[in-house]
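Review form for a predicted model. The reviewer records the input and the model, then writes brief findings.
Reviewer: anonymous (R2)
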Amino acid sequence: MARFKNKRNKKVVAKPPAAKKQPNVDQVTGDKIPKSFVFSRGKLPGPLKQLELDLRKVMLPYTALKLREKKRNNLKDFLNVAGPMGVTHFLMLSNPRSVPHLRVARTPRGPTLIFEIHGYALANDVARSQARPRCPQELFKNSPLIVLSGFGGGGQHLKLATIMFQNIFPAIDINTVNLSACQRIVLLNYNSETKLIDFRHYSIRLQPVGVSRRIRKFVQSHQVPDLRGLQDVSDFVTKAGYASESEVDEDTATVSLASDLGRVNRASTKSAIKLQEIGPRMTIRLVKIEEGLCSGGVIFTEFGKEAAEANQEADEEAQQEA
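Model under review:
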C-alpha cells in the first residue's frame, strides 16, 4: 500500500514592513547632504591623474573614492548613476590643447563653472616640502570647512561661484557643531587684480596657549596624567601602581593620560589654532559659466567670442576622444 505523508498546515506569519531608510539630510539647511563625483574627460597625463585622486580625498567622505572610469563612458552614464546615489555635484578634469581645465557642475541641470588650472602641486609634493608632514586617515572622516576670501563685490559671476563652492560641502551650524569634527579646511582666495583663485587644503591642529615649547611637546606626546580628580600626591602614587602590593586597593585603576589639548589647557580655556597644508594646491581662473550641465547658454566668459568658440570646439573634441 502506498504511504501518504501528513502535510502539516504551515502558519504564515506576516512580517512587518521594513523601515524605510531616512535620506541623508543636512541638519542645517534641511536639504540632502551634497555628494560628488570626481572624474576625468579625455586622456590625462600622469600628474593630472594623480591630481584627480587628490581631489577625491579632499571631497571625502561624501564622494566615490574608488570610482571606476572607462573610455567608453560618457556624461550620460555618470548622470544615470548619480541620480539613485544622490550625487549633487560633478568635478571634471580635462586637458584640451594641453591646458588643464576643471569643471564644477551642479547635477542634473547645471550650471557649470569652467576653470583654467594655471598651476598645481600634488599632495605628495606638498608633503615632501615639509620637515614633519602630518596627514592621518582620521582627518577624512568628516567634511572640511570652506572659507572664501575676496569674492565679495566682484560681479554676478563671482556670486555664482561663491554659491557653488558653498553648496559643494555640507553646511555647519556654529552653535551645535562638534569642534572635534572640524579637522580640515579648504581655503579659496580670489585676487581681483590677477583674477586668479588660490586653492589650499589644510589640516587643523590645536596647541595649548601660555606654555613653553618643551612643555607643549611633552603635553602633545600624551605623557601628562589627568590629576583633576585627585586630592593628594599619595592618590596618584596609589592609582598609578607605584605603591607596595599591601597598600594597593583591589578597586584601583591606572590614571588615564590626557587625550586632548583642551583638557590639558583647561586653566586658560584657550588654544592656538595651527594650520598645516596637506595638499593639493591649485591656482585656477574662472573663464566660463554655462547654464546647463556642460551645455546651454553662456552666462559669463572671460575671453572673446571667437576664443570661447575655439575652446568649446577643443573641449568637444576631447570628449569625443574619450
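Findings: Residues 305-321 form the longest helix (17 residues).
Further findings: The chain is about 25% helix and 25% strand.
Recommendation: see findings above.
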